């Protein structure tokens, strides 16, 4: 499904009479939707295995992005001319699609942000500044991305609150017993990663949320990695906040979603001031807009929000169950082969994980691995993955991380393994 000509009404894209992209799981047809996969890098076909950092974008997303600028470009919510009404309708259609994607009760609970980091900062700044007091405790874990550490450190320092950290085992698994011991009457907030970006491990967030609520705390889930792999139902999870990024779910960069329970959001002050988040401004007082606009000051990232809708639809059309089966097969295939390489150690080699494999090779620096793989057209991520406390706990400076998406293949996994064998031969 693609946009063949302009102008076009973005609201009608999903109703076009083209055949669906994928009635059944067809890897060749899926890959054909991603033009970048045809690239040649260093004289080799691109093997893109850096999906935990960002996913590639299908044509339906890039076509929608161009379609907005070619046909509907206007500011939203305040204009009454045709283009403004079309742009507003397309923007709000994404909010409804996002609501369904995560199972929120209302679009009032769906706030557009710049991404996961922005969503976490919004909650820390708005909820934290209003509600935290001297001596209150915030619980995070050793697995957290820096984006779910630093905002809490900043607000804790400002308010005199205390950060408590859930430890992990030697293979990166969260210590649930230690978590329950950390809970107390002082616990006001828990912010926990759903899936580790560094290791791919899945945390038991439902159990953490339930235990946190019993202790009287609110719970936020960092869904940056889980949103593309796992079925998300925020009402079933009963989390108070859930944040994720568009570019991790085959959507554009610079846009994300923050979910929050309505009654909590209503009690929170605005994060930023400006247009859209107000009802009336006078010099003596200002009244704020209703949800969700209270937290969406200024002209938003309209085009990327509009295009994000089609990333959700791309995933929904294939189905997360089919995607997960395919990715699990790639993960198993990779894990089995990597275990056979002498001197290679998988970090976080456990069963409960998504399609991420993170490893070190004895006596070979991760950057050298990445450079030599790139020379073979293979893109992986190396370093601490913005999880320096986790790497410190594991006693390593960083890892090489290969992460798989719906468009990756077993042959690409084989290319990775063969590439690593060449690296070992050169540097071992």
Low-confidence stretches: 1-22
CATH topology of the largest domain: Aspartate Aminotransferase, domain 2
Question: What percentage of residues falls in helices of 4 or more residues?
Answer: 25-40%
What is the radius of gyration computed over CA atoms, rounded to a whole number of angstroms? Answer: 22 Å
Number of helices: 15
Secondary-structure-derived class: alpha/beta
Strand order of the largest sheet: 4-10-9-8-7-5-6
Whole-number mean pLDDT? 93
User: Number of DSSP strands?
Assistant: 17
How would the blueprint of this fold be written?
Elements: H1 27-32, E1 40-41, E2 44-45, E3 47-48, H2 59-72, H3 82-102, E4 110-113, H4 116-131, E5 137-141, H5 150-159, E6 162-166, H6 176-182, E7 187-193, H7 205-214, E8 218-222, H8 226-229, H9 234-237, E9 241-245, E10 256-260, H10 262-267, E11 278-281, E12 286-288, H11 302-318, H12 320-338, E13 344-347, E14 356-361, H13 366-374, E15 378-379, E16 381-383, H14 388-394, E17 399-403, H15 410-427
Parallel strand pairs: 3-15, 5-6, 5-7, 7-8, 8-9
Antiparallel strand pairs: 1-2, 4-10, 9-10, 11-12, 13-14, 14-17, 16-17
Helix pairs in contact: 2-11, 3-11, 4-5, 12-15, 13-15
Tell me briefly what this model is.
Helices cover 39% and strands 16% of the residues. With 428 residues, it is α/β, with parallel strands linked by helices. β7, α7 and β8 (218-222) form a beta-alpha-beta unit.
């Amino acid at each position: 499904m693609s946009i063949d000509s302009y102008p076009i009404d973005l609201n009608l894209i999903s109703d076009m009479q083209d055949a669906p992209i994928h009635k059944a799981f067809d890897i060749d047809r899926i890959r054909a939707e991603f033009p970048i996969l045809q690239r040649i890098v260093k004289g080799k076909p691109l093997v893109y295995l850096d999906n935990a950092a960002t996913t590639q974008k299908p044509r339906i997303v890039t076509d929608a992005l161009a379609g907005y600028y070619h046909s509907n470009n206007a500011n939203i919510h305040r204009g009454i001319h045709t283009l403004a009404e079309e742009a507003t309708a397309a923007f709000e259609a994404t909010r409804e699609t996002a609501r369904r994607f995560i199972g929120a009760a209302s679009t009032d609970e769906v706030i557009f942000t710049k991404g996961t980091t922005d969503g976490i900062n919004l909650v820390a700044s708005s909820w934290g500044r209003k509600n935290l007091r001297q001596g209150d405790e915030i619980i995070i874990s050793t697995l957290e991305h820096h984006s779910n550490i630093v905002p809490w450190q900043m607000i804790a320092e400002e308010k005199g609150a205390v950060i408590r950290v859930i430890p992990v085992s030697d293979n990166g698994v969260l210590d649930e017993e230690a978590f329950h011991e950390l809970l107390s009457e002082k616990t006001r907030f828990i912010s926990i990663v759903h899936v580790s970006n560094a290791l791919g491990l899945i945390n038991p967030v439902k159990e953490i949320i339930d235990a946190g609520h019993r202790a009287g705390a609110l719970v936020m889930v960092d869904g940056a990695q889980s949103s593309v792999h796992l079925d998300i139902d925020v009402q079933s999870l009963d989390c108070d906040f859930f944040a994720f990024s568009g570019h991790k779910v085959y959507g554009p960069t610079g846009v994300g979603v923050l979910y929050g329970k309505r009654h909590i959001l209503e009690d929170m002050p605005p994060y930023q001031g400006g247009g859209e988040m107000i009802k009336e401004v006078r010099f003596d007082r200002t009244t704020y807009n209703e949800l969700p606009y209270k937290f969406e000051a200024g002209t938003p990232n309209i085009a990327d929000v509009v295009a994000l809708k089609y990333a959700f639809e791309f995933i929904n059309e294939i189905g997360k169950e089919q995607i997960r089966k395919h990715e699990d097969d790639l993960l198993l295939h990779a894990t089995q082969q990597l275990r056979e390489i002498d001197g290679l150690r998988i970090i976080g080699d456990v069963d409960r994980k998504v399609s991420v494999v993170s490893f070190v090779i004895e006596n070979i620096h991760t950057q050298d691995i990445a450079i030599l793989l790139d020379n073979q057209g293979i893109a992986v991520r190396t370093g601490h993955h913005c999880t320096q406390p986790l790497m410190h706990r594991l006693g390593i400076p960083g890892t090489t991380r290969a992460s798989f998406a719906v468009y990756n293949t077993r042959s690409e996994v084989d290319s990775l393994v063969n590439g690593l064998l060449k690296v070992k031969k050169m540097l071992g």
